[in-house]
Structures are given as structure tokens and as C-alpha cells.
């Protein structure tokens, strides 16, 4: 989507436009190759193999912003953080902290529902080696801008990893750009950025990110959203 194009009028319209995107030839080729060749454990499953939209509560006050779909996770299931170890860790935490109705997710339509929370990513296609190129990152920036425009209640963006943090800072035009760190908070107008180490296997298996650590970040996100609501009510009165 380019600036000259009409902005999507709903999250459903946005999702359809994201699913049809073929803007980055390298990412298109990779996501479709993975969907054809598959991992042995999933050889009987049909892979999504397309860009992945965000999902969750349309009235969410908390937005979780990750890097990109995993090749055999969201690129297979069609839903962010669904079907891989990172998602297993994340959804368990969202359930413990009251943002999700169940502690695990395996596929679209499995009954998982998010409350006051939405999950999205800075890049919508699975990238080779999980590393998008700068041009690919920039091409996807308009999708994040369009999504946030359709989420007027968002007051906290939980950035899962440095890539998500950088994407949020670019979107908000923060200069100088604040440095990423776990539990770091930055106020940016009506929104607060909240840093969290990414729930990758590398981080969770080594103990760099523990269940207690991510739970504390999610609880803090809720508290910040509550504070924003209270401040808004006070000013309105």
C-alpha cells in the first residue's frame, strides 16, 4: 500500500490487502518455497504461504509487535506466533496474565481469543534466516501504519525484540531513537513503548527471557493502559 492509495476502511479489508501483497520478490519466493517443500513433521498440512495479518481484539489497548512470521510457524498456520515454540511461550504468558482465553494455539480457528490485546509484526512475510532486508522492512511499514490507524484504543505497544522496537520508533518518528532494552518504557504522545526480549527459543531456552519476566512486562502493559484510561477520564471531567 502506498500513500496515494486509499487507506483500508476496516481490519478485515486491511487483512485482505496484506494477504494479496507481493511487493518483495525475495520474500514471495521464500515463503512460497517453504510452503511447497514443508518440514517433514508438517508434510501432511497445507501451508498458508502468504503474508500474515495481525489478529486479536479490535478494541485492544495493548499491541504486541514482533519481527515477522516464522517459516514453519505463522507461514504455515496463517496466524502470528501460532504453531512454533515462540508462540507456545507467548500464548502461555498471555493466558497467565488474562489477555488470552487459553494457554496454547495451534491453528487459525482453534478457539483462541485475545482480550484487550492484539498481535502483529513489523514484516508480514517469513524472511530467509529470519532476517528481512532494510527495503523489505520499509515496504511493510505502511501495513503497520494502516493497522494502527484502525486501532484507536491502543495505548501500549509491547515491542518483542529490537526489530519490533526499531519499527515502532520509526513509525512514531522518535528522534533520537531510544535504545531498546527489556522493560524499557518510552512515552510517545498517547502511546507508551514497552520493550520485551523476543520469546525466541534462543532467549527462552537460555533463560534470557523467563516466564516471570514476560509476565511482568504484560502486567505492566495493562497497568500503563489503565493509567492512560484514568488520565483520559480525568481530563474529560
Fold and architecture overview:
The chain is an alpha/beta fold. The protein has one domain: Uracil-DNA Glycosylase, subunit E (3-Layer(aba) Sandwich). It is 41% helix and 11% strand. The chain contains eight helices and six strands; from the N terminus they run ααββααβαβαββαα. Strands 1-3-2-4-6-5 form a six-stranded mixed sheet, with helices on both faces. A hairpin with a 2-residue loop joins β5 (185-188) and β6 (191-196). α4 (85-96) packs across α8 (211-236). It is globular, with a radius of gyration of 17 Å. The N and C termini lie far apart (40 Å). The mean pLDDT is 94.
Q: How would you spell out the order of helices and strands?
A: HHEEHHEHEHEEHH
Top-tier CATH class: Alpha Beta
Helix percent band: 40-55%
User: Gap between N and C termini, in Å?
Assistant: 40 Å
CATH architecture: 3-Layer(aba) Sandwich
Quickly count the domains. Answer: 1
**How many beta strands in the DSSP annotation?**
6
| The CATH topology | Uracil-DNA Glycosylase, subunit E
Task: Order the strands across the largest sheet as they lie in space.
Answer: 1-3-2-4-6-5
Brief overview, please?
With 237 residues, the chain is of the alpha/beta class. The chain is built from eight helices and six strands; from the N terminus they run ααββααβαβαββαα. The protein has one domain: Uracil-DNA Glycosylase, subunit E, CATH 3.40.470.
Amino acid at each position: 500500500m502506498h500513500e496515494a492509495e486509499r487507506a483500508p476502511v476496516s481490519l478485515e479489508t486491511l487483512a485482505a490487502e496484506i494477504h494479496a501483497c507481493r511487493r518483495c520478490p525475495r520474500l514471495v519466493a521464500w515463503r512460497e518455497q517453504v510452503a511447497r517443500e514443508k518440514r517433514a513433521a508438517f508434510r501432511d498440512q497445507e501451508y498458508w504461504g502468504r503474508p500474515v495479518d495481525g489478529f486479536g481484539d479490535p478494541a485492544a489497548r495493548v499491541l504486541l509487535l514482533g519481527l515477522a512470521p516464522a517459516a514453519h510457524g505463522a507461514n504455515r498456520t496463517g496466524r502470528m506466533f501460532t504453531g512454533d515454540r515462540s508462540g507456545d511461550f507467548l500464548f502461555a504468558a498471555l493466558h497467565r496474565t488474562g489477555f488470552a482465553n487459553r494457554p496454547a494455539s495451534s491453528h487459525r480457528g482453534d478457539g483462541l481469543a485475545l482480550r484487550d490485546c492484539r498481535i502483529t509484526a513489523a514484516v508480514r512475510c517469513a524472511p530467509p534466516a529470519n532476517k528481512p532486508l532494510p527495503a523489505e522492512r520499509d515496504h511493510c511499514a505502511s501495513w503497520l501504519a494502516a493497522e494502527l490507524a484502525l486501532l484507536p484504543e491502543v495505548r501500549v505497544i509491547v515491542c518483542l525484540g529490537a526489530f519490533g522496537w526499531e519499527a515502532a520508533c520509526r513509525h512514531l518518528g522518535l528522534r533520537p531513537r531510544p535504545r531498546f532494552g527489556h522493560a524499557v518504557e518510552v512515552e510517545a504522545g498517547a502511546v507508551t513503548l514497552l520493550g520485551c526480549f523476543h520469546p525466541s527459543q534462543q532467549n527462552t531456552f537460555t533463560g534470557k527471557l523467563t516466564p516471570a519476566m514476560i509476565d511482568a512486562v504484560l502486567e505492566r502493559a495493562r497497568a500503563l493502559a489503565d493509567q492512560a484510561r484514568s488520565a483520559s477520564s480525568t481530563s474529560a471531567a
